[in-house]
Specification:
Elements: E1 2-5, E2 11-14, E3 19-22, E4 51-53, H1 64-71, E5 76-80, H2 84-89, E6 94-98, E7 103-106, E8 109-114, E9 126-131, E10 134-138, H3 148-155, E11 160-164, E12 169-170, H4 182-192, E13 196-200, E14 211-212, H5 217-228, E15 240-242
Parallel strand pairs: 3-4, 4-5, 5-6, 10-11, 11-13
Antiparallel strand pairs: 1-2, 1-15, 2-3, 7-8, 8-9, 9-10, 12-14
Helix pairs in contact: 4-5
Length: 243
């Protein structure tokens, strides 16, 4: 199995038989986020995929135009079931909505929608991926929540967790973060029993006052991880590794 970071929250997972892209985006972000602070690459540069999974329908996670340009309008796309009509209206033709606990099997890859909590109250899932004897989880831009223990009990320890860590605050959130902080990301990784925490959803956007990243993300992440012995694996855009 090979893992590659796309950009922002995007992740590519390749097994012998299946390639899955989670939250791939390129140009869908709006002026709300400002211009990205690091390079973004067209999805065409990452090769072909068999399946796209979208954690939720915010523009920094769901980029239908980039998906269609890179992989066509008939690529299989999984979304939270409340997002089906939006994905279809965007011109995607093979859309499957999934609710918490639902499972899809693609060749040797099992994809399960598990609990996630969106900071703005919009429908969101996390994707639990099982293939080639490995278990991974991608949590979009979830808040901290009380279901980490239940996920760990039901599905077992996770090899790699892709977790948001930028603790973003927006004007409408009254000073409250709309996704996990570095410290919360490490705590979630510890509960899930991960072998490696790959931070996502940080670095690319900081656009006061509309969208503000918490300070010192990576240094705080490493400090917190060292205190409870969680392994952090930082990937730059396009960087990857094999399990």
């Amino acid at each position: 199995m090979h893992i590659q970071r796309l950009q922002w929250a995007g992740t590519l997972i390749r097994t012998k038989n299946v390639t899955l892209a989670i939250d791939p985006m390129y140009g869908s972000y709006s002026s709300f986020f400002g211009q990205p602070k690091e390079p973004f690459y067209p999805l065409t540069e990452f090769g072909s995929v068999d399946v796209v999974a979208v954690t939720h329908m915010h523009s920094d996670h769901f980029d239908p135009e980039a998906i269609k340009e890179a992989w066509g309008d008939e690529v299989q796309v999984f979304v939270p079931y409340e997002g089906v009509s939006r994905a279809e209206a965007a011109g995607l033709k093979k859309v499957k909505g999934m609710a918490f606990g639902e499972v899809a099997q693609i060749e040797d890859m099992k994809i399960t929608a598990v609990y996630s909590a969106d900071g703005l109250g919009d429908p969101q899932v996390a994707w639990l991926i099982e293939a080639e004897g490995k278990r991974l989880i991608h949590c979009g831009d979830t808040l901290w929540h009380g279901q980490w223990w239940n996920i760990a009990r039901e599905y077992g320890n996770v090899d790699v967790a892709f977790l948001p860590v930028n603790g973003a605050v927006i004007e409408a959130s009254n000073g409250q973060p709309i996704c996990m902080s570095p410290e919360q990301g490490v705590a979630a990784a510890s509960i899930l029993g991960v072998s490696a925490l790959v931070p996502i959803h940080y670095g690319s956007f900081h656009h006061p006052p509309t969208y503000m990243q918490t300070p010192d993300v990576l240094s705080r992440l490493h400090t917190s991880a060292s205190q409870i012995e969680v392994t952090v694996r930082v990937l730059q855009h396009k960087e990857g590794f094999s399990l």
